[in-house]
From TrEMBL:
CDD domains: ADF_cofilin_like. Keywords: Actin-binding. Belongs to the actin-binding proteins ADF family. It comes from Synaphobranchus kaupii (Kaup's arrowtooth eel). One of its GO terms (molecular function) is actin binding. One of its GO terms (biological process) is actin filament depolymerization. It comes from the Eukaryota. PROSITE patterns: ADF_H. This is ADF-H domain-containing protein. Residues 2-154, 176-328 form the ADF-H domain. The keyword Isomerase does not apply. One of its GO terms (cellular component) is actin cytoskeleton. It holds the Pfam family Cofilin_ADF.
Amino acid sequence: MASGVTVTEDVVTVFNEMKVRKAQAGEEEKRKRKKAVLFCLSEDKKNIIREEGREILQGDVGNTIQDPYLHFVKMLPPEDCRYALYDATYETKETKKEDLVFIFWAPENAPLKSKMIYASSKDAIKKKFTGIKHEWQVNGLEDIKDRRTLAEKLGGQAKAIEIAKEVSRATPVSEGSGVTVAEDVVTVFNEMKVRKAQAGEEEKRKRKKAVLFCLSEDKKNIIREEGREILQGDVGNSIQDPYLHFVKMLPPEDCRYALYNITYKTRRTQKEDLVFIFWDPESAPLKTKMIYDSSKDAIKKKFKGIKLEWRVSSLEDIEDRRSLAEKLGGRAVVSLEGCPL
């Protein structure tokens, strides 16, 4: 269903300038050429316009902007829709290429009315972008951060996009934030990983069942969050349901890393496994999500030998024990922390 919106001439001009690559263009002209641009609806919802100040110039790349794709992702509003043009530079096994991509950003937590208007207006702007080959509708931050998803749109043969090496190997948008993992974090992991059969009762009670880790205030270190833990000795005493208690420890609007020592039953036996959890709620600020996502590898490298990893983005998913059961063996799991599934 068309919305009757008008696409401004400025939008069409931007597209035509990005589409045409002049081989003989001078250095100044090349620098001023646009690498990425966002478009939005005007306040009265009657026109599609270029969003002021939301663009990347080719001349910015390598100077004020080191990773243009990461910068582009950060430009997108976490709770509203946008259209965008992105001039992607990528490498295949044979050659280096450049292609223009039309992106429709429609995040899940955008208002329903906004989603409806942008969706119904999409054809109006697409018709003006004559000859564009690549179109990508993205609904989640996780999808747009992962360059492999864009690589698929570009033909699936891309080995590197912008500065990221080897798309096939999972480099999402950020390639490491340079954070340091505190020794205390590593000590906690090692203590939770080793289960001493001959440990005394007091030692067993003090053993950690669950722990949260966060970034320090200056965002330079991953540290153990003070007071955010469950001890084995608490279970059955001050805490009746450790999993429910753990879920309540998670901040609803901020990210965290966690270790959870899960006890569960399969049809054959009772088991215990250590799970690394990356809590990444949709309502967390975009900047926080980006920092935690880019710092995840730093803490994971310290958790050597851990087999189970779970990234969770909604309270509904983490409250449902069946989601965790899937990570632990699917239908073979019949109960988790004493609760039947």
